[in-house]
Structures are given as structure tokens and as C-alpha cells.
Amino acid sequence: MVGGMFGPFGAGTGFGWYVIPPLAMLLAVTLIMTWHVSKTEKWTTYRRPLYTIAVLAENWIIIVGLSLILTGPPGVGSFGKAVAFFTTLAIFWGFTIILASSKIQGKFIPELGKFRPDLIYPTGANLARGEIFTGLGMKLILTTFPAEIATWGWLPVWNWWGLTWAVISMVLLVAVRGMTKMQILMRRMMYDKYLGWSGQLIEEGLLWIGFAGLAYGFLNVFMGYVPFTVVYPRYWPGLVFLILSFIILVPVRGWLKLRYDRITMKFSTTVGLQALLYLGVVVMFYGLISLFMGKFFGPSSSLGLVVGGLVEVGGLVLIVFGRAKSLMNDRKGQIPQMLWVLAHVEEEIRMKVMTKRMHVFYQLPPERRLEHMRNMDNALKELPEPQRSLVFKSRLLALASLPEEMRLELMKTMDKIMMGSGM
Q: How far apart are CA 365 and CA 44, in angstroms?
């Protein structure tokens, strides 16, 4: 290893060339998500200012690391280092909260096709950052030992190679899973594929794998270890909690999600599913900490309970409420995207999909029916010609094919939309 400004360069715990890999990956993600793709629309119509700010803030984790490294040698704590660390955490927690705003989303344009980072990114970022805050909170609660309090030895050491692994896991969790989830949703809608467990196991399986990779990466970041180079104690009973987290996140949560129409799901139901996701994350982190640190832990000090508890609440808010709100925005934003895809398939498939949506709308209570049918009507207006006319025609034909009672009820709702009145 070559000596560095704050320690051995090869270890990745100081400030050296090893900062480049995670920084380069995060900057590449930032560039991809803000790249100008339209030849007809202004960049600001589909990449809104708040979205751009939020994407630029994706590099927050680099600043958090630098706040630890530049305020003192790795592994050596101080009051100043603690202030810098928790100040940056608070600032970027706030940057994450803005992802729940509907002002994140831009206008749908055909050039975007199926790739809508303004839809995928907010929900994924709340997911990934929420897991980071949750894991950090648990680590502080469980391992802020009294003997380390006076020396500030409970602060994260930081490791850039650990962050590199965590960023790779974030790309899997946010981008790969986000695009896969969209593909599964489209195929369910149009071709009756992935209707049962096959699609759900892929979707939730990627979630668990991404979570596990992110958790392992940040555990190494905290400890100051290079991933896969340190032999942890391997307390095998901790695997019980990892298996339990898999059960919660994949079969249990997957089964519950299969019971609901994704686009018209209520906010309260969405919050409930996110609360279950948060529980799965907590159980996973407890299992990892136990597995890699040699025993089952309880709260180790009053300071750890208070400080870690505050960070833990921050993670809960991001996952349960921030992500639930982002998902509601996401579902509404998906509608013009789905209609655009429908406009490019055979009339038979378009009719089948529209007929299914009419059945879903009919089963909703009147207030929610009005809301979701209005969302579809507004989404139709975003489509250019001739795609708008194709989808509009299919909707009328689907409506005409329904039983009279259902057709009349839906037409009443459409009349209210056209007249611009409420319930």
C-alpha cells in the first residue's frame, strides 16, 4: 500500500484516488438522468428544476464521506467530525423529502419512450436513501458502546470501496429494478404475462437482493473495511433474521401486492405496504449486524438509543411516507406512458386493455372513479396525434361493449369530467 494524506491509499479509508470509482458512477447516473433527449421540447418541460436539484443531490453520499474524512483521520472521532457528519445527514435528508413532490415530474414526451427517470428515480431514491438512514440508525442504536462514547469511536470510519459496492447495489435497486418493474407492468397489462408469482418474484427478488447488497456495502463503509476482504465473525444464527426479511419482503409483500390494481391503489394501502417494507429492512439489518459482528444485540447505550433513534425515524419517514407519496405521483405519471405504448400495439390488444380498465374503474367508489378516469382523460391529452385518436377510439369502443348498467355508470362519470364538475 502507498501512504496517503490520511492513511494507506489502498485501504480506501482516507482521501485518494479510490474516491474516483463511486464518484464517477454517481456522476454517470446524474448525467444519464438529466441528458437532453428531445428535439422538439425544451429541456425544462420534462426535466423540471426541482427534479434536477434532486438528481444533483444524488451525489450527497460523497459529501457525507468527505465530511468525515476531511475533519480528521479515519477512525479518529471528534466533536467537530460528529457535527459535520450529522449536519450533512440532516441536509440531505431534506433533499430526499422533496422527491415526494409532484413537481418532480415533467411533461411526457414521445422521445422518452419507456424510460422515465422522473418517475423511476424519486421512488427508488426514497427506497435506497431510506434504507441507508434505517441501517445507520440501527448500527448506532446497537453498537454505540459506552467505552467508545468519550473518544467518539462510535462514528463511522468510512470506506470508499464499500461505497463503490453500495452504489452498484443502488443502481440495481433503483434503475434495473425500476425498469424491470415497468416492463412487468406493461406485459401484464397488454399480454397477460407475469400475472401471477413469476413477475412478482422477479420484482420483489430484485428488491431483496438490492437491499442486501446495499446493506453489506454500507456496513463496510461504516466499519472502514474493503468489501469481501475481511473475515467477519459470522454468527450464523443471524441468518434466521435474513431469511425472515426475505419472507417479509418477497412472498408476504408480493402476495399482498398481487391483490391490488397497481395504478388505482389507495394511499393508505400504499403506506401499509411501505410499512411492511420498512419492517423487512429493519429485520434484514439486524440479521446482518448480528451475522457480521458476532452476536445478537440490544441497545448498547443511551446516547446510541437517542442519536440512532433519530436517524432511524428519518429512515422510517423516507421509506413509509416519502416513498408512498412518490409512488402515488409515479402511478399518475405512468398513465400517459402506458397510453403511448398502447397506441403502438394492435387494436385487439388496445381494446382488451381498455375494457379491463373500464371494469377496474367501475368497481371503484364514485369519488375515486372520477379521480382515476380524469387522470386517464388528462393523460390522453398529452399524447400527440394520431396516437391520441387511436387510443380515444379504443376507449369509446371498449365503453360501448360493456353491459348497459356498467356503461351508463361510467358515462355519468365521463360527463362530469367533460363539464369540469366535482362530485
A: 37
